[in-house]
Each structure stands twice: as C-alpha cells, then as structure tokens.
Design a protein that fits this description.
Layout (H helix, E strand, L loop, with lengths): L3 H4 L8 H14 L2 H13 L5 H13 L3 H12 L29 E2 L5 E5 L3 E6 L6 E9 L4 E11 L8 E5 L8 E3 L7 E11 L6 E8 L10 E13 L2
Antiparallel strand pairs: 1-4, 2-3, 3-10, 4-9, 5-8, 5-10, 6-7, 6-9
C-alpha cells in the first residue's frame, strides 16, 4: 500500500474538487490516520472548509473516534474559541454564533411552544400553551476517565409548573455509566452560577450536555416563563 502522504500533492492535486473526492473515498476505504493526514494537508493548502470539517467530524463520530472528531472541530474553529480543549470541553459557550452543524457544536431546536433567542447567551421562552417535553438543546464533548465540573450561569423569570428546566449531563450511548443532572431552576432566579461535579468512568468517551424540561403530571401543567442561559462550561478537575 502506498503511504497516504506520498499521494497528497503528486497524485492527489491540491485542488478543492480533488481533495473533497479523496476525503469521500477515504471515508469508506481509509484509516483514521489517513483522514487526519488529509485534513492536515487540506488545512495547509487552504482547502479546508466548513463542509469538510463537518463531514470529517461526523465520520469520526460514526467510527466512535470521538477525540479525533473533536480535534478536527477544534482545529476548524481555531482562534475564534481559544480555550476550546485547553481545558474547556464545550465550544460556543455563550451561544455567540449560529451553530455550524457538527456534533461538537450546539443543536438548537424547539417545538412551536418554545422560542429560542441567541441574545447575551440563550433565552428559552416557554409560551404556556403546552405541557412540553423539551430536550432539543444539547452539545456533545469527548472526555476521559477523571473528575469533571459542569457549570452554568443562568437566570429565570416567571417559570411555572412543578417541572421546570434543568441541566443534564449523561453518556449518550450508555446512561448507566453516567447520568447526572442539576436541580430544576427556580420559578424566578437572579443571574447566578450552578455547578455539578461528577466522575467519568472507563468506557465513557463522550458526554451530552442537555437542557431539559420534563412533562408534568399535574393538572396545571403548561409551562410558561423564561430561562436565560448566559454561558456554560465543562472542564476537568484536578
């Protein structure tokens, strides 16, 4: 087998079309090392773009190579998020930019009764028209077996019902290995920090950080009010 590095340039020309075709071929036939070398070559030759970064991140995700997937994403983001992976495990922590569609950026989706607004963080408005089961705001992060601290700065105004929003950190492939959450946010709360310390055990390589609201079993169950999330953080603890 001809080494990957011998093909890049002499055989695979440094053009966007050829590079993209080669990456797509490597997804089926190449190793993780092949893909990482091609990604580095594309960056050096100014051929990398969002589509390729997203494609590679999801390719490594599907291969369960989570650290490689997150490294590609961090290299794509670059200086825009300087503390990402050093030591921060979450990106776009203040919701400053529109998510770019990779597994290691926010998924921001909501049912009709919930409105999401990126403004000095993320405002989540519950309309009071539905007993909504809400879990569509989340981000993944690769982790190692050690202790971590999740922290969130948030405030709340006029939240109703016995089931109010909370923050959930779990292993998306096996919640039995890791499944922790904060207490529900108070009906009204001033801007403040909440922290959650937990241990990642061997076998867990990626976690989901998710904002949730569970359906209420009470008669008065349609949630109204606003949760404002200013920023979040997930870092290793010594």
């Amino acid at each position: 087998r001809i080494p990957e590095t011998k093909l890049l340039g002499p055989v695979i020309p440094a053009t966007s079309r050829a590079a993209r075709a080669w990456v797509f071929w490597l997804k089926v036939h190449g190793t993780n090392t092949d893909l990482l070398q091609t990604w580095a070559w594309m960056r050096e030759n100014h051929l990398a773009d969002l589509d390729i970064a997203r494609f590679l991140a999801w390719t490594f995700w599907e291969r369960k190579s989570f650290s490689d997937a997150q490294q590609v994403w961090a290299e794509w983001i670059g200086p825009a998020d300087k503390d990402y992976l050093h030591p921060e495990r979450l990106t776009n922590r203040r919701f400053e930019y529109e998510p770019q569609g990779g597994p290691f950026d926010w998924t921001l989706a909501s049912p009709p009764s919930v409105q999401l607004v990126r403004q000095d963080g993320l405002e989540i408005h519950f309309s009071g028209t539905e007993n909504v089961d809400f879990s569509q705001v989340h981000q993944f992060a690769s982790v190692k077996p050690q202790r971590y601290r999740f922290a969130v700065e948030a405030s709340a105004t006029g939240l109703t019902t016995d089931q109010r929003p909370l923050f959930h950190v779990f292993d998306p492939f096996n919640a039995a290995r890791l499944n922790v959450q904060t207490q529900p946010v108070s009906e009204t709360a001033n801007r403040s920090w909440t922290t959650l310390d937990f241990d990642v055990k061997p076998g867990t390589e990626v976690v989901a950080v998710q904002i949730e609201r569970h359906q209420s079993q009470h008669f008065d169950n349609k949630i109204a009010g606003t949760l404002h999330v200013y920023q979040v953080s997930l870092v290793p603890r010594n």
